[in-house]
Batch of 2 targets.
Target 1
Amino acid sequence: MKIVHIFGGALYAVHYEEAEDNEYDRLMDLWSDVVYLREYLKNCAVKEVKQLANKISDDQELIEDLMIEVEEGERNLDMFFRPLYNSETGFRELSLQKGRPHQKSYLRLYAIRIDSDCYLITGGAIKLVPKMQDDPNLMEELKKLKAVKNYLKVEGVFDQDSFEDLKEE
């Protein structure tokens, strides 16, 4: 596993050894592929495949636009990411997070909050069910989140400075 700087002050993504690309780039490519989206939605027994595929593709573009705003300093990452668990409040060390372009979006980027405005993307998914436990793909994303969090803890990461130290090793 490698940690790759994406852009902005502090947006990073995991590049898993078996993967061709880092998670952010992999997901942006996947979610912009309408053929993939239609096939995925058909397999999920979605009724209005074409409309939902277009909506998801539009949301993918919106995520990219939001990230450009982050890069240009018009927005910060703390405005995009929220705690994974809605019941979580306050600051938590290495908090599990979800990012989505708007409240009704099916797209989720999953990340670990390293520090204020510093995030490490571990994966993402198309969320078509109310709870993560209802979808094996979402449960896999949760496993990835927890595995990367555990890795960071073992390596002594607890804030942006310790994260920077890890990247320099």
Target 2
Amino acid sequence: MKKSKLFICIVVIYFILVGLPSPASAKSTVRRYRGTPSVLVNKYWKYTPSHTNATQYFYGTHNTFVAKHTYRGSFRSSVISWMGLFGYYVIQGVDSKKTNYHDWWFIKPNKNFSKIRFGFITIPQNDIPKHEPAYYANKVATRTSLVTAILH
């Protein structure tokens, strides 16, 4: 309960503060940056849910984050901004299917980016996530190649 309140307070502060674009890590304090975090650009991951054989693919470009073959189908988030929070990259982007909705991505990579803990939600534009990043980042994806991610 206390962590949820803390997360909500930090997100409110996030919307009040305006950050300038500059390099930062996921361990940063609450500053907002534009585009996809540079450490996530041109990195590709795959995830296979335990209840199915359908593999999902995720990757970032300079201004978008892409999901393929998810329960929502394939979609692309035009990245507005991101911030580092509790060791997670929290990325907010405009949903490609519903422009009045935002996709929120929660990504925590290991040291060499071979695996990530991740999750995402889609909520109305004026809403904010109700839980801390660890609540949403409940899946583990492994690195894959560009060819595999793009072709599938």
